[in-house]
Amino acid sequence: MQPAAREGTSAILFDTEGRLLLQLRDDLPHVTDPGKISLVGGRREGDETFLECVVRQIHEEIGYYLAPGRFQLIGRYFGPDHSTPNGTLHGELFLARNVPVDMLVVTDGRVQIVAADELEHIRELLAPPATYALEILRKRDPLLEL
To answer: Of 44, 46, 66, 126, which cross-links 130 as Cys (Cβ 3.0–4.6 Å)?
Structure first.
């Protein structure tokens, strides 16, 4: 029996100084990509849209409300789910800028603040979805040093 497609969303967040705000995932067995650095996001609930999902997830995980208009859709994914054997993932990727670090109250994992030129130093610590998402961003903005 084929598992149902998992649906979720995540966001690439930049702080007010242009640095990436990433999430160091808790190192627990029930957490997807434990101990890895990833994006903030999660699974869709009920009949919410992907945009509603990313707004909710960001608010839940970093304790800061970003209005829907602050997010820009930059990519979609439908394909193999790296965390579910034989599963598929359907997701949307968003971008938001000018997130004030001093206003964050992190509830899952820890925030990792990374300058774009430092990203190469943590590349091996990135969860597969984060690597994929950052590649999408780099292709959209080739002048961005990711």
So the answer is: 126
User: Helix count (H) and strand count (E) of the chain?
Assistant: 2, 7
Any idea what DSSP says for residue 103?
A: G
* Segment 106-133, tens digit of pLDDT: 887 889 999 988 988 998 999 988 988 9
Tell me what pLDDT residue 16 has.
96
Contacts 24+ apart (CB under 8 A), 44-50: 44/7, 44/8, 44/9, 50/7, 50/9, 50/91, 50/92, 50/94
Cα distance between residue 78 and residue 89, in whole Å: 6
Asked whether the whole model's pTM tops 0.90, one would answer no
